[in-house]
Amino acid sequence: MYVGLKMLKGFQTVTTKTSVAEAQALLEKQHLWMLLVVDGEKLVGYVRDEDISAALPSMMTTLDKFEALYLLRKLTIGMIMRKDIVTVPPEMEIEAAANIMHEKNLAGLAVVDRSGKLVGYINRTVMLDVLVEEMGLRQGGARIVLEVEDRPGVLKDITGIIADQGISIISTSTFHQDRHLVVIRMAIGDASAIEAVLRNRGFKLKTVEDFAGEWRS
What we know:
ACT-like_dom_sf; 10 helices; 39% helix; alpha+beta; CBS-domain; 2 domains; four-stranded antiparallel β-sheet; Alpha-Beta Plaits; CBS domain
């Protein structure tokens, strides 16, 4: 899966000439915390709601409402925007983008093409949706978890057994930390029969109770 296939395209942008007052109104109206800033079609920065709140000096509290609004209209986004925005290309693998967000603790990434044109935006909500899709949850079925040895062909062996039973696989995921887990969702309502077959073939099936001690400790 690639970033360009999952990125958001219908999102709000402002320009460097947009007034701070107008940007503030957009944030409040659309319940946003951040706006991307463009110059023509090119991404040049971003501005957060806290940047707008901090745009005026503390002395603004001594001004009356009309004076404050006047100064807000004079301030433009180009004067206060941030330029340290992290971008990714649409052809990047989506898991690589997720890793960047994780390592840098980012809520989202702007997506730009090779010319610097803003083409999309991807955030944590999109990443969570991708996870749900990848795991096949919305398609229903039954899920099994196996702890396996790390060897070539182990996944082929498991899926081959499932195929021999005439069962369709919805999704397959692997997890590697201190152990190797394979999670398979199948297009069946009850997995007990295939679990028995896999156990008879020497595979170690895991249930929630096998892991419960880890979150109870």
